[in-house]
Structure to design on (504 residues):
């Protein structure tokens, strides 16, 4: 693997940038692997990397039906945070954030993690009480988070609507200083490059069309590039996971919805934190290119189509303009949607499912970009050892029959 | 804006509707004989099919539940009918 550094950049620059090698090799399938991962999104690629790096398993393939990072990993608004309510969730999302904090150095690829802080803004005394409760929970769970008053919060978002007739007045909110954003493509490409360098095969345009099972254990997968044998199968296919698990007669507690995102034309720096308004449900950050990246709630129509509906576009944009009337001057550059896998209790599904040797990592819904390093770490552990890591155990599928839901919709008030 | 057909009111804006559940989720009975797994399946599981689906929707405006057959990929609506035993 060609190492990236300031010196290599200088050297390549002087040589007309002709000497760069491709970041990962395009592999074709071998007949058999020690482990196969379905889905070349962040979670699948991170799984492959940690399998090779932490467990020494390198006869591993990642199968991606399109191109890597073409799913939700390349479609999200890149907010990273760990301000959840339940201890199980905080352990999970903070593991992810800690791994993100060392990732660029570890994989020699700049994922542009920018810990610019995040404000969840409240507008009513009741919302302030909820914020106080979550801030307390975060502190009890050992994560940085604090309640912020109106004046301090207003200073974080200078352009926010403070007019006397503002519908949603800033009363304060929860502040997490370690939250922020990262570059989504870089996370996919960086993990792919690091995994490929350790010997993992990354196979694009390879769709899994069936799962082979013998005597209750997985023996391989059928793909558009032919059958591949394996006794360990990891599935990290986001919204496509219910369809894949249908091959082995497992029904999951998942509904698929479209989630939209929006990007404005670029402007000079005007917002250096991530902001979520509880009153409007719209959240926004400014990209390094200067674009405002924003989004909000789910389209409420279950779908597998990667496009959004108009009523939600209107609600999200109206929410943005209520927060920042000045942004009304901006033009919208792009709008798109991804199919997100929403679990009944708004928490992911990690663990064994169906035939022996099959492990899933899905159900991240609207919030799994921030979790990629942890999702990969935990699925790799399951594939390598066959048993749960202590952080993934509470997220096992069995929690539904056992009545141990981890309901973050109720806990931290995430809207979806 | 998509329009969904309510069997009672006709075509209305999608914002007037609320998805309830996939059709065919019959409550398992009798309660005493229902396993935890079967009860969890009834409460939480969904097929989430890509393509044709049959679902129970609520028209918020008139308050009636009804059956909608539609395609989850193209969003085309194929049929809209009252629940069994309900006259339109
Ligand atoms: C608009 C939007 C905004 C979001 N904003 C945020 C945010 O700010 N912060 C945050 O933390 N999260 C956010 N999310 C959620 C986040 O994007 C996802 O939870 C996360 O990217 C999921 O990663 P993944 O690797 O599991 O899935 P994906 O990146 O979707 O990867 C799954 C891959 O599996 C492949 N696949 C599917 N079926 C098959 C098959 N049969 N054979 C082979 N390959 C297959 C797909 O092509 C896809 O590439 C957002 C999502 C969207 C859509
Ligand atoms: Zn009606």
């Amino acid at each position: 693997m060609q190492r990236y550094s300031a010196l290599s950049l200088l050297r390549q620059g002087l040589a007309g940038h002709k000497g760069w090698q491709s970041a990962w090799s395009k592999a074709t399938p071998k007949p058999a692997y020690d482990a196969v991962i379905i889905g070349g999104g962040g979670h699948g690629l991170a799984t492959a990397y940690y399998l090779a790096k932490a467990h020494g398993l390198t006869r591993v393939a990642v199968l991606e039906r399109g191109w890597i990072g073409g799913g939700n990993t390349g479609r999200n608004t890149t907010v990273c945070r760990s301000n959840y309510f339940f201890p199980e969730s905080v352990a999970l999302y903070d593991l992810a954030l800690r791994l993100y904090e060392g990732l660029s150095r570890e994989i020699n690829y700049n994922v542009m993690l920018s810990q610019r802080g995040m404000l969840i803004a409240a507008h009513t005394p009741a919302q302030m009480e909820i914020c106080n409760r979550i801030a307390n929970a975060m502190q009890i769970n050992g994560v940085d988070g604090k309640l912020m008053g109106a004046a301090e919060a207003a200073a974080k978002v200078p352009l926010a609507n403070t007019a006397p007739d503002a519908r949603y007045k800033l009363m304060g909110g929860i502040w997490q200083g370690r939250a922020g954003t990262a570059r989504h493509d870089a996370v996919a490409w960086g993990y792919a490059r690091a995994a490929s360098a350790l010997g993992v095969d990354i196979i694009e345009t390879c769709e899994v069309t069936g799962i082979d099972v013998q005597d209750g254990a997985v023996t391989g997968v059928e793909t558009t590039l032919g059958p591949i044998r394996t006794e360990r199968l990891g599935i990290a296919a986001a919204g496509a996971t219910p369809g894949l698990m249908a091959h082995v007669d497992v029904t999951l507690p998942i509904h698929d919805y479209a989630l939209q995102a929006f990007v404005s034309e670029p402007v000079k720096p005007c917002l250096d934190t991530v902001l979520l308004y509880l009153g409007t449900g719209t959240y926004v950050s400014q990209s390094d290119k200067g674009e405002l990246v924003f989004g909000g709630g789910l389209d409420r129509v279950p779908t597998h189509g990667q496009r959004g509906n108009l009523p939600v576009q209107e609600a999200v944009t109206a929410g943005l303009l209520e927060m920042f009337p000045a942004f009304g001057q901006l033009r919208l550059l792009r709008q798109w949607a991804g199919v997100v896998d929403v679990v009944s209790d708004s928490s992911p599904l990690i663990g064994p499912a169906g035939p022996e040797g099959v492990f899933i990592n899905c159900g991240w819904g609207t919030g799994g970009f921030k979790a990629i390093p942890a999702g990969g770490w935990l699925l790799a552990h399951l594939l390598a050892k066959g048993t749960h890591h202590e952080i993934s155990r509470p997220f096992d599928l069995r929690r539904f029959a056992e009545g141990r839901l981890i309901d973050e919709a109720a806990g931290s008030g995430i809207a979806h | 804006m998509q329009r969904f057909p309510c069997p009672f009111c006709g075509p209305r804006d999608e914002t007037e509707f609320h998805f309830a559940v996939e059709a065919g989720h019959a409550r398992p009975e009798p309660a005493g004989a229902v396993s935890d797994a079967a009860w969890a399946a009834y409460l939480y599981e969904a097929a989430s099919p890509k393509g044709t689906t049959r679902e129970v929707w609520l028209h918020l405006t008139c308050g009636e539940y009804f059956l909608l057959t539609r395609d989850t990929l193209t969003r085309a609506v194929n049929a809209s009918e009252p629940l069994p035993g309900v006259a339109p």
Observations:
- The interface with chain A takes residues 1-2, 13-15, 18-19, 36-37, 39-41, 43-51, 53, 55, 72-75 of chain B (CB under 8 Å).
- The two ends of chain B are 25 Å apart (CA to CA).
